[in-house]
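Job type: complex structure
Entries:
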Amino acid sequence: MVFNSLTFIVFFALLLLLHRLPLPWTAKKVNLLLASYVFYAAWNPPFVLLLWISTAIDWTAARRVYEARSVRARRGWLVVSLAVNLGFLAFFKYGEFLLRNWQALVSSFGVEYVPPAWNIILPVGISFYTFQTMAYTLDVYLGRSKPLDSLLDFSLFVTFFPQLVAGPIVRPGQLVPQFARPVQATRDQLLWGLALMTLGLFMKVVIADSGLAASADAVFGSDKPVGFADAWLGTLAFSGQIFCDFAGYSTIAIGAALCLGFALPDNFRMPYAAIGFSDFWRRWHISLSTWLRDYLYIPLGGNRGSEARTYVNLMLTMLLGGLWHGASWTFVVWGGLHGFYLASERWIRGRTGVHGDPAGAWNRIALALTTYLLVNVTWVFFRAETFEGAARILAGMAGLAAEPVAVLPTVFMVKVAVIVTGIVATHWLMRKRSLDAVVARAPWWLTGLVLAAMLFAVITTQGSGEAFIYFQF
Amino acid sequence: MELHADEVTRRAIPATRWGTAWWLAVAVVIAGIGAWEWKMRSLGLRAGDLDDSKSHWAVERRKVATGGHDGVVIIGSSRILFDTSLDVWQELTGLRPIQLALPGTNPRPHLKDLAENSDFAGLLLVGVAPDIFFTDWPGIPVFAGLVDFWHEETPSSRFGHRLGLLLQRRLAFIEDDYRLGTLIDRAAPFEDREGVRGPIRDVWKIFENGDDRQTTLWRRIETDERLRDHARWVWGPFSGEPRIEDADAARIIAETKRHVDLIRARGGEVVFIRAPSAGLYLESENQGQPRARTWDPLLAETAAYGIHFEDHESMRNLTVPEWSHLSAESQRVFTREYVRLLVDNVPWLGRRRDGASEP
């Protein structure tokens, strides 16, 4: 079920009630686990089987890895875990993509091959929970942690509903110890959790869906060349939409977990105020970027080898990170562009010796805006469904579109300009501050009024329960 | 170790008077929503006017699959949807049709679905709005994918729909066309750019919807000149140029015939209904999709019974406030008239009309 639905409100209210009943801790954890299965099954009940298989495989594999006497056996069990998890991804997410590319490859050698129709439904959130379970087995294999003693705790770690389908991707060490002892949210935790959920819903329902989605859809859905203003505003709209959609989800997830007494890590830290791309990736989808760093970039050698090898590792990590987002070459290009940006930044910093933020406020602002504009170029490949579509938008952004047509109504242009300026300005003003600190400094009545305004806007905007963008990944 | 960002997560709670802040927030929201509800009711919205969502439609579609396969089913666009009274149908025949017509949507994909992917063997009424039926335009995006949606709908969505109905029966402000964001878009005082259709040219609220998808033209369209004129303006521009090519019409009719034949082969029947339109809209349809090139060959090729409002005196002078849909009163008259004709002319209905009052 999606967070922005009436079904979730009822589900969550019942679960909160259940969790506050005077039951033994194990019973409460079982309740949470069953509720998480219900949460997932509410999309498509049979896909709960995938969760069970993933849980069972990694539970077993990690134990066997730990107990194995020989390197070969340890590797073998690791391969089992990787094969099952990546196999799920390959089949459900990349099956059609692989077939289509195979078809293109063999046809380039003159072989006629028509792949079978691929009517496989993508299980929601599969990329998130497979990465989470793989991290557990990898940690045991790499000697970073021991296997868990409790299957219940491990199952809950894999399935815990707030972060199950769109992250944050949580490491065992971040969450599992919280299951060890009975926890119940304090009154302030509960109310702060509800405040975070309100903020997340506001970002999703009011800003992303109601404020920006239509503009992005209109521009990226156009099959005709679009002009400079439309192309830029459509792309800026998408930059705001995807941030508010995804960060909104993470904020609701963090809030929901907190209401139950659990803490999930931050997934975003004002990314559009980033100065440079390494800074951007410390602020955007933090749980994925750290996952890729720890389980891909560093095992590849990280920056421990030659300069050239470091650049190769960087590019490989970002290309695969791009592919993680979707079974399309446009996502690979998106990742490749980010890899190129990171590599370029590394090269420039290495040559100039400038590390950290540059001196001077205007320099920082100029670099932050440059970073944001270049990030927007990557969003074109992320949002466009084809390279032709991406080329159309990029031509418009460069002012090179031939006979462009107007796409955006004036009111949408004004909305995008106002909202995106607001988002970027907010990120800049809060670049070095946390939301917690800002709220702590605000008078209580202002917090109350802001909450009321957001809730009122969410209720009167309603929304039709559109799914979050990252569910498809 | 460098890798470990995975110490147990802790979250700080900002120190503020959370209880007081939330009490203030809840009080302000209750007052605000109360005022909003009052304002929406004063604009003519009412509780019990249900959202005609995909889920609402899917409930009806599933009725066909679970026992309604030999009943009466209506598909079409908004005209047959707004212009049919299910109560009058039931009163006259003892049968309550399943209403599957959709605003701004081409019924042909639904005809195809019922013909090819179901065991439907009942009476199918196909509403023909010429400027939609005789095109390859599938319809407005909001209803895209419904042919698959009804059996793929998630349990969460089904449950959410039930909860939504509970609220919609009690609160008037839950209305797609009166969402805060929609109102802002439509009220913004900006001129549209050349060639762009902005929210001002969207179809604003024109109907009310109830159980069984009984849909009726919104009363304010009959009484509020500004809203009525806006709706007429939205239906334009009326170019008046002939648009349909004979080859396209022939292809569409041949495809339709194939599907009609499939339903007939199972013992079902298909009839076509051309509901009234008026004013510039009717003129435009007559020029763009002239009856001689569309409606007449459709009936001739499919050998189906059809009711065209222009052929019946009792249907010609009905009230069509915004040129495309009948008023609430005319809806009942039109339904009564066309059901009488069906009873007299469609043997399938004659056979099934058991226990009904005499029309």
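Summary: The domain at 69-143+204-352 of chain B is CATH 3.40.50.1110 (Rossmann fold). The first strand of chain B starts at residue 72 and ends at 75.
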